[in-house]
Amino acid sequence: MTTESSPGQGAPQEDLGWAFQPRKSAAGPQPYPGTPADSADRPQPYREQRQPEPAVPSWDGRSPAERDGRSSDTRWDGTMPLGVSELRADAHEAVREPGHRTSPHILRDSGWADQESGYPSAATAVLDREALRHPGPGAAQPGPPAGGERAGKTRRVGRIVLTLAVLAAAGGVATVMFKQEEAAAVASEKLTRVWQIPAPAADDALIGSWLTDKLLVRASSRGGLRAYDLSDGKQVWRAASPATAAGRGTVPCGMSPTVSAQGIGTVAFGKDGSTCTWLAGVKASTGKILWSLPLTSKKHPVAATATTYLQGDVATVVGVNFLGGVDLRTGSRVWGYQARGHYCNAYGWGADGVVMVDDFCLDKKTRFILTAFDGKTGKVIWRKSERAHSDVTHILSGSPLVAAVHTARQDSVQVFDTKGTGRKLAVGNDELTTGNETGADHSARLYGKVLVTPATAAGSPVIDGFDTTTGAKLWTQRSAVLAVPASGADGKVYAITTSGSPQLVTIDARTGRTTPVAGLPVGTGKWGFTSGTVYVTSDGSVLELNALGSHGGVRFYQ
Q1: What is the rounded CA–CA span in Å between residue 536 and residue 434?
Q2: How many CA atoms lie within 13 A of 390 on its CB side?
Q3: Phi, psi for 532 (deg, rounded to 5)
Q4: 112: which DSSP letter?
Q5: Side-by-side strand order, sheet with 124-126
Q6: Residues 6+ apart with CB under 8 A from 467
Q7: Residue 504 pLDDT > 70, yes or no?
Q8: 281: part of which helix (H) or strand (E)?
Q9: Alpha-carbon distances of 209 from 380, 482, 538, rounded to whole Å
């Protein structure tokens, strides 16, 4: 571990232990040997060779391959070292609006990959209104409830259908899937809109947000960094850039998902919402900038994407130029990434508590290494050699470490143990994401041993639940977006339904069963939430932050 101070705190700008970029370019060798750099028909390293998918019926009449639509081709330019931002721009089809990032399209190995991994497709609870509207001729009709309508806050309407489908798999392995279809329940309690904040511009992009007991802190590409009173929606403060930030840009481009116990978070700034030039520690209650440090230097003058996360009193910075940890209170350096060779390219990804780095070193016997670092100390958690480059598309949890990993051979979401051994989750063809169709949202989280995460299935948003111990998919909730519970909440999984009359519901993490909590106003047309962050406060109020200004700004329901 290094002990020198970080850039901006007295350390030389050329300190290569702190700089993320390798000391010398490793662009000369090809990660896939025998491929000329100028060959027009060189093989695509990330195109997965998939077996033909079995023909199965679908709701839209298209095959799974047709619904996939996109490929996972990426570009590997052998004439120059790749940066993280360059890799993501090509491979992940990033949306051009600043701060709004769509999730990569992850091609799955369909059901066969899950069977090969040893994990069955477990009981999946889904809300299927079509089956309820058009029951089969032999379907049983529900009788009247005993004792009349049940008293309470909810009224159950409809029925429960249990379908058992046994599908024969390759090699004689049978997959058993239980499909539970439950009609929507209606909440008697109704929330009303108390206040709203319009977006500053139609092209405003949400960068991130914090929720405290009294304030909503919102960062966006056109609105800057501002705080609003939860009681009335009035602006409390707007962060003022220090004099040292002159010429470096004042547009937020990255934000820690949370604040510390002391109410401090980190925000990265730059000249636009996509590239960052400096990082600041911000007091959430006042907006005061406590410290700042540069994310560019003479050796690395080009601004690039950066993400930042918290683990106790240490903030990590994960970017193309810098990778390391700083003291959240002072901005002084705690640890910095050290390349393991002189001719290395490295690619980093982060989450709360962990940093993953995949590197390629020309001057080392083992060319490719994937490493997990402790975000607070910089110590190696595990390290393992690879045959080729791995791209970590998402880190869904820091402890246990759950990450979506893309290689030339396969795509998978794995739960890693302390030695780096991965256990696959049975994701099927779903795309798992960390938030609701934007990098600004961080609603995926663990509830006990169950990972609950937003996902996309056949082009539609869903919520999936996975057992991280067995890897089995427990349930899928359709037509809903995952909400972020307030700190100190009751530990329940909250979501907002997006079809019919919108409702706040809770989801049983183990079974996927939903319970209505409160109805939300439809307003003019549909409720309209498409992507962004939904908070549920400790008193059951709902706070909606849209990812794009064209869809609205902030709405508060109570």
Answers
A1: 18
A2: 25
A3: 135, -150
A4: H
A5: 124-126, 174-182, 160-168
A6: 122, 449, 450, 474
A7: yes
A8: strand 278-283
A9: 30, 16, 17
Q: With beta carbons less than 8 A apart as the criterion, state whether 140 and 86 touch.
A: no
d(CA 275, CA 273): 6
Do 506 and 494 meet the contact criterion of CB atoms below 8 Å apart?
Answer: yes
3-state secondary structure of 554: strand
Residues 241 and 225: beta-carbon distance below 8 Å? no
Distances (CA, A) of 520 to 157, 182, 224, 398: 18, 20, 29, 33
Long-range contacts of 28-37 (CB under 8 A, 24+ apart): 28/362, 29/362, 29/367, 30/78, 31/76, 31/360, 31/367, 31/368, 31/388, 31/389, 32/76, 32/388, 32/408, 35/78, 37/77, 37/78, 37/79
Residue 435 to residues 206, 280, 388, 427, 461, Cα–Cα distance (Å): 13, 24, 29, 16, 11
pLDDT for 453 equals 97
Q: Buried (b) or exposed (e) across 445-462, using 16+ Cβ within 10 A?
A: bbbeebbbbbbbbbeebb
Amino acid sitting at position 439: G
d(CA 498, CA 64): 24
The residue behind tokens 């679908």 is: 58
- Distance, in Å, from the CA atom of 393 to the CA atom of 93, rounded to the nearest integer, reads 12
Please list the residues that pair with 215 across neighbouring strands: 229
Q: Taking a C-beta distance cutoff of 8 angstroms, is the pair 553, 546 a contact?
A: yes
Of these ranges, 296-300, 471-475, 545-549, the one predicted with the greatest mean pLDDT is 471-475
Tokens 């940890």 — which residue?
Answer: 325
Instruction: Kindly list the distances between the CA atom of residue 464 and the CA atoms of 38, 257, 263, 343, 452, in Å, as whole numbers in the listed order.
Output: 43, 21, 31, 41, 6
Dihedral sign of CA atoms 460, 463, 466, 472 in order: negative
The torsion angles phi and psi of 65, rounded to 5 degrees, stand at -65, -40
Residue type, 285: S
Q: How many CA atoms lie within 13 A of 249 on its CB side?
A: 24
Q: What is the mean pLDDT of the chain?
A: 74
Nearest alpha-carbon partner for 199 in 180, 182, 224, 162: 224
What are the DSSP calls for 13-62, one per residue?
TT-TTTBSS-SB---SS-SSTT--TT-TT---TT---PPPPPP---TTS-
pLDDT at 167: 31
Tell me the pLDDT tens digit for each residue of 116-171.
Answer: 333 333 333 333 333 333 444 433 334 333 433 333 343 333 333 323 233 333 33
pLDDT at 528: 59
Q: Which pTM value belongs to this model? A: 0.70
Distance CA 14, CA 301 (A): 12
